[in-house]
Every structure is written in C-alpha cells, then in structure tokens.
Design a protein that fits this description.
There is one protein chain. This protein is α/β, with parallel strands linked by helices. The protein has one domain: Vaccinia Virus protein VP39 (Rossmann fold, 3-Layer(aba) Sandwich). Strands 1, 2, 3, 4, 5, 6, 7 and 8 form an 8-stranded mixed beta sheet that branches. Helix 1 crosses helix 2, helix 2 runs antiparallel to helix 10 and helix 3 runs parallel beside helix 4. The mean pLDDT is 87.
Length: 268
C-alpha cells in the first residue's frame, strides 16, 4: 500500500473519535481537540460510543430485512465489530464498501477487508462531499450491484458537512443512485439539549480547521424527505430499537449526554 501523509499536525474527526472510544490510532492534535471538547462537555465520550452501538443495531436490522449490500461512508478507524462482521454474521454473502478520506483509515484498510469468503468488502478513499467520485468509482460498481437494494450508512458524518456544501443535496444524490427498496441509516449530532456546550465544541473544531455543525431534529428530519421511516422514527440513539442486542449492564445515558439523533428509512 502506498505511503500516505497522515496530516498529524491537525485533528481529524475519525482520529478524535478513535481517541474518545479508547483507541490508539490518534495523534497529539487529535488528543488536544478531544481534551478541549471534554472541557466544554465532559460527556463527549458518550456520543461516539452510542453511535457505534446504533450502527450495529441498524446494520443488524437491515440485514434482517434482507439487505446484503452496504455503502458505509465515513467509516472511521476500525472498531470491531464492523459493518461486515454484523452483516455477514446474518448473511455471509453480504458485500460492503467502506468509504473514508482520512489517510490513517486508509492505512488500516486491510483490517477492513477481512471479509467472509462468501462475501466481499472493499475500501474507497473518497470524500463524502465529492459524490461523483464515490458513485463513479470502479470499487463501488465492481463490489455492489446498484440494481439491487443497498443500505446507505451515514453515521456521525453529516455534522462535519456545513450548509455551504449542501448536505441535503449530497444525501439526495446518493439516494438517487440507489434503487427502490434501499435504506438510509443516519445519525447526527444535535444541539437541542445542550446548545451552549455543543457550540463550544464546534468552536474548538473550527479553530482547528474542522467544520462541525450540529442541527435540530427538524433539520435532521429533512435528510429523510421522501423516504418511509422505520419505526420508531428519528430518535435519540439509545431509544432506536434497543432490543436489537446492545449491552444492558450499563447505565442509560440521558438525552442530553447523547445529543445524537438516529433513524432508518426505506426508499419507496
């Protein structure tokens, strides 16, 4: 694999998340951003953890509905079980394309590519804001059959896309390339519960050159326009189908501690 520039002098959301999840694939700039975020909101470790749990529940649900193809954009640094572990445990023939633009994720691509022999995984180095590069990639079209339903996963990624890049249009263009019967699983930070704390955290990111834009529940619901929401609709993460197998031996966080909405919807 070719040598890549890890840009260790500035934080990257995937590496900050890795640090908050207790990982080791991060650098001083990432840890500094994380520490400043923790000063603004001491519960900053909770949203990444709940996002990972929501991702696993959402993938499990989709696999149980017969979805055997997944496009995971904003994959982040591997934290098992990954999408293919969950999906292929239900259907070993499942195929997954992981997409991220962080060089350190690229260096870990081999860890993502350990597919079940009956299925397939692949990795695409691309930016969510460049929809054409994703949809036009041979990696995508050779791994997934876009004539069959796909599970599009946008987990904890859209709050790093500012309004100036029109995130609704990004989501619409991705969904337009997928056939009826496909699903969107999405989670997004919100300032609905602790607006001042999240504004401070967003300011920490902005000073480091990273966009963070938390959004209200009505704004996040706009990403699902034209889709059929899966029950129980858009919820603070722990309330979305907790019966799908999360650990029950930990204290349930409050809505304010989580501050992330998540939901799943079907393209009619």
């Amino acid at each position: 694999m070719a040598e890549v520039d890890l840009h260790t002098d500035r934080p990257h959301p995937a590496r900050v998340y890795d640090y908050l999840l207790g990982g080791k694939d991060n650098f001083a700039a990432d840890r500094e951003a994380a520490h400043r975020g923790l000063q603004a909101n001491p519960d900053s470790r909770i949203p990444p953890r709940e996002n990972r749990l929501f991702l696993r529940r959402a993938v499990r649900y989709l696999a149980e509905q017969g979805i055997d193809q997944f496009l995971d954009i904003g994959t982040g640094i591997p934290s098992a079980p990954n999408v293919h572990h969950v999906a292929q445990a239900i259907n070993p023939r499942s195929r997954i394309v992981y997409v991220d633009n962080d060089p350190i994720v690229l260096t870990h691509a081999r860890a993502l590519l350990t597919s079940h022999p009956d299925g397939r995984t692949d990795y695409l180095d691309a930016d969510l804001r460049d929809v054409d590069s994703i949809l036009g990639s041979k990696v995508l079209t050779e791994t997934l059959d876009l004539n069959r339903p796909v599970g599009l996963l946008l987990i904890a990624i859209l709050h790093f896309i500012g309004d100036d890049h029109d995130p609704e249009d990004i989501v619409n263009r991705l969904l337009a390339a997928l056939p009826p019967g496909s699903y969107l699983a999405l989670s997004h930070l919100t300032g609905d519960f602790r607006p001042e704390a999240w504004e401070k955290i967003a300011e920490v990111y902005r000073k480091q050159g990273v966009t963070m834009q938390v959004r209200s529940k009505p704004q996040i619901e706009q990403f699902f326009t034209g889709l059929e929401m899966v029950e129980p609709g858009l919820q603070v993460l722990p309330a979305w189908r907790p019966e799908l197998g999360d650990p029950s031996d930990q204290l349930q966080p409050t809505d304010g501690q989580v501050s992330v909405y998540g939901g799943v919807a079907r393209k009619p």
